[in-house]
Design brief:
Blueprint lengths: L1 E5 L3 H12 L6 E5 L2 H8 L6 E4 L8 H11 L4 E6 L4 H9 L4 E4 L4 H17 L6 H12 L7 H8 L3 H12 L3 H17 L6 H7 L5 H12 L3 H10 L1
Parallel strand pairs: 1-2, 1-3, 3-4, 4-5
């Protein structure tokens, strides 16, 4: 699990970071004294859990969460605040915060919350992400078309950079690498049907020439489309 801690009080920030580092599920902990610094980090790094205070100089914890929610709907957020006012808790609930804890932090309760989150991540190593599913669905239904990264970003209503980062996090490949695998899987299936020529299969898989198709196929499978067809027929 990758954690981010945001608190303007050094002792609390360092204490939480040390506590998280000692957890068995911890892969990485990043800590920040301001919400703006945390936001800059979170915009460029995949993170599983954010633990943040509310009242801090400059950008508040709630403002940080509001900024993050648009592009990071799956980020699990825990608020640890010295303020237990109902208004704060109500706003946190509206923003989809998983837990609202008050200071001094109850480490037993925090441990229980983190254990639950870790279990959820283990059960679903690739979290549900509607935006990514929509992009993949578009790919699957349009493999014969010329698809650019900018087109996929438009489908997801995100920037190309964000799409690449989120896609990599969920599938361990870039959008275009994933698209290439889908194209070649379709081509493999079509090659088993002798009624289709290699040229037609190349077009159906989204390649504008037999040469570019053969090059991609050979790079992925170690043999040409025709050799694959011949080998498959022999078997």
């Amino acid at each position: 699990m990758r954690y981010v801690v945001v608190d303007d009080e050094p002792k609390i920030r360092q204490g939480l970071a040390a506590f998280l580092t000692n957890r068995k599920d911890c892969e990485e902990v990043a800590s920040f004294g301001t919400a703006s610094a945390a936001y800059e980090y979170l915009s460029n790094q995949p993170v599983d859990v954010l633990l943040t205070d509310i009242r801090m100089p400059g950008l508040s914890g709630l403002e940080l969460i509001e900024r993050l929610r648009t592009n990071y709907p799956d980020l699990d957020i825990i608020i640890i605040s010295g303020y237990g006012e109902f208004g704060y808790a109500q706003k946190a609930l509206e923003l989809g915060v998983r837990q609202y804890l008050t200071k001094p932090t109850d480490l037993i309760k925090l441990t229980r919350v983190l254990d639950d989150l870790a279990s959820e991540h283990m059960e679903s190593p690739l979290p549900e992400d509607l935006m990514i599913r929509n992009v993949i669905s578009f790919m699957e239904h349009n493999l014969d078309r010329d698809i650019r990264l900018s087109h996929l970003a438009d489908i997801g209503f995100v920037t190309p950079n964000y799409l690449c980062r989120r896609f990599k996090e969920l599938t361990n490949s870039s959008p275009m690498e994933y698209l290439t695998r889908l194209r070649l899987e379709k081509a493999k299936n079509l090659l088993q049907d002798p009624s289709y020529s290699v040229e037609v299969i190349a077009q159906k898989a989204g390649y504008n020439s037999r040469r570019s198709f053969s090059r991609a196929f050979n790079r992925e499978y170690g043999l040409s489309p025709q050799d694959f067809r011949n080998k498959n027929n022999q078997e």
